[in-house]
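Checklist before submission:
- one chain only
- standard amino acids only
- sequence pasted in full

Submission:
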Amino acid sequence: MFEILVSLFFQEYLEHIQAYQFFYTELPKSQSVQNGIFNIREIHNSFLYELKSLFNFILKLCKSFRLS
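Returned file contents:
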């Protein structure tokens, strides 16, 4: 169970990072695109915070299963 959850967590994380890298490195550098990239950065940071919270929840859940 734990391995599946961790695998899903990292799969989601890697897909997000790949999308972020594409938007940050591959798009033209016009002002409107730069504004969009700034918004993407904000979404990226928010996503990473939520992902970290989810991972911590998964760890706590797995620890509670081990203790019971």
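Reviewer check: The two ends are 15 Å apart (CA to CA).
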